[in-house]
Amino acid sequence: MTPKILFVSLLIAGTVPLFASVPLSPVKPVRISEPPVLDGILDEEIWQQAPSVTGFKTFVPDYGREMGHETQVYMAYDAENIYFAFECYDEPDKIKTSFAQRDKIRDDDWICINLDSYDDKQSLYALYVNPSGIQMDTRYSNGQEDAGADFVWYSKGRIHEKGYTIEVRIPLKSIRYSVRNNLVKMGVIFERKISRLSIQGTFPPLDPDMGTAFLIQSMQLVYEDLKPNRLVEFLPAVTYGKGVTEIAGEDVGDGGKPDFGLTTKIGLSSDLVMDATINPDFSQVESDAGQIEDNLRFALYYPERRPFFLEGNENFIVAATGGGGLPSVFNSRSIVNPDMALKFSGKLGAKNRFAAIYASDANAGLADEGSPNDQIMVARYIRALKGDSFLGGIYTRRAEEDRVNDVAALDATIRLTQASTLSGHFVESFNNYIAENKSTAVHAAGLQYALDKRNLSLVSSFYQLGQGLSTSVGFVERTGVTRYSFFMNPKIYPKSKYLIRLDNNLSLGYTLDHESGLWERLAGYT
Fold first, then answer.
1. Which letter does DSSP use for residue 27 in this model?
2. Exposed e or buried b for every residue in 473-489, given b needs 16+ CB within 10 A?
3. Secondary structure of 341-365 in the HEC alphabet?
4. Which of 24, 52, 69, 70 has the most crowded CB, counting CB atoms within 10 A?
5. What percent of the chain has pLDDT over 70?
């Protein structure tokens, strides 16, 4: 498929009628005047008054089965927070939990609040808590889950004779949401995992014909008279460094040097935030996990951990990227050592998302002494369509001393049926070499069809990356290739006491290297 017909395919796909789902009735959490004590004990009167839901059904290993242990979820809110309480019945001596580091609880029992705070079917906050109260949080958007996200929220868990309870408080300042006609509407799917039984379940139950498409199966929460508080944060930083150098056998000090910086976050509204920083200190950031770099043709890809760049980072995910040689059109880790940076992220109206960054990057001293900073600009726009479909565009620029790199891209995800989506992107990269008075233009394109339902999961992809494709603020693994890949996972549910599901995984991959004209083939079956 050529790039010229890529978006024609997407537009044709957009004319396919979408499914008609029957949503659950909206739930109105109870408004409270006194906050509950976050101790994992549900003895406050508010939890007796709060609306609750129960009736969790499994989606792992099969859909629609009873979990065997009841779960009750209660909902409340006040002027500054939203609250959830979970009563998870179980055999206390069989509960799997740990006092682990944050984000290290995947293998434990846990509950999760999958919160679509805009109720626009485009992204989710995923807030996990194990029975010991240890947290894990991610941000999900456009088929990708960012585990580097860290939000400020509070939880407490307690194991008792009937199972365990968890209380959660989410400050409104920590999430983004929209106020329309004095109402705030959010979508939610509550999730629970029982590790020893290898089962996961949700409320509302997932439809087996819609698979794990969480975004379009959520239950609506309606909050009344929830007036947003103005978000204002100032984080000053002061550091002092002193070095010693050995010269002619003697230690010579440099006299010491103080350094000052300031980072601020200002909520222009409940759904639009401005971040600004001057001379930031990124040294107090979670270190990167180690990676093995032997026998690789491309640089290592590290997720973002710096708080300044995490706000709204999910908006920069481009459709059908991540597995075709172009993991990201914009990779914030390419901004290494900014003297200053300014960022806007959030919503403009009910269906429009917007994010923009400007940075003056000293590039951690990689450039020659005295050379000017790189000037970086990024702008992203997303238009939400029906369900979790969207159309988007992104523009990036990095102006270096001797080169300017401009990248423009269009992307889209269209939901074709209850269980399937078609996603694609078209990227054009322009390089202007100032000293050589030369310019180049190279394109990339990708198209992906995905199907996910009870009996079958399937992903079929096409990618084309032109020779010499570059994006100075993105991440490119390999260029000059055309790739076709296919993955199929038929699922069989035998009538047996001992087997619930049999999985068959078939994967095929073909890569044409344009320079050599040779094909690379990869096949696997399990």
1. B
2. bbbbbebbbbbebebbb
3. EEEEEEECCCCEEEEEEEEEECHHH
4. 69
5. 90
Tens-place pLDDT, residues 157-199: 999 999 999 999 999 999 999 988 889 999 999 999 999 999 9
For residue 419, the model assigns a pLDDT of 96
For residue 90, give the DSSP letter. -
Whose CA is closest to 345, among 100, 30, 118? 118
Q: Rounded to whole angstroms, how far apart are CA atoms 1 and 114?
A: 37
The amino acid that residue 426 corresponds to is F
Pairs from 357-363 (Cβ < 8 Å, separation ≥ 24): 357/332, 359/335, 361/335, 361/336, 361/337, 362/336, 362/337, 362/338, 363/336, 363/337
Would you call 6 helix, strand, or coil by DSSP? helix
406-448 pLDDT per residue, tens: 999 999 999 999 999 999 999 999 999 998 889 999 999 999 9
Structure tokens at 328: 């990201």
Measure the CA–CA gap between 462 and 424, rounded to whole angstroms.
9
Helix or strand (DSSP H, E) at 223: strand 219-224
Contacts of 137 (CB under 8 A, 6+ apart): 103, 125, 126, 127, 128, 149, 150, 151, 153
Q: How confident is the model at residue 110 (pLDDT cuts 50, 70, 90)?
A: very high
- pLDDT the model gives residue 293: 59
Residue 428's nearest CA partner among 446, 409, 412 is 409
- Beta carbons of 47 and 184 less than 8 angstroms apart: no
On the question of pLDDT at 283 being above 80, the answer is no
142 touches 66 (CB < 8 A): no
Note the pLDDT of residue 296: 58
> Percentage helix, strand, coil, to 5, in the chain?
10, 50, 45
Token couple for 76: 């409340």
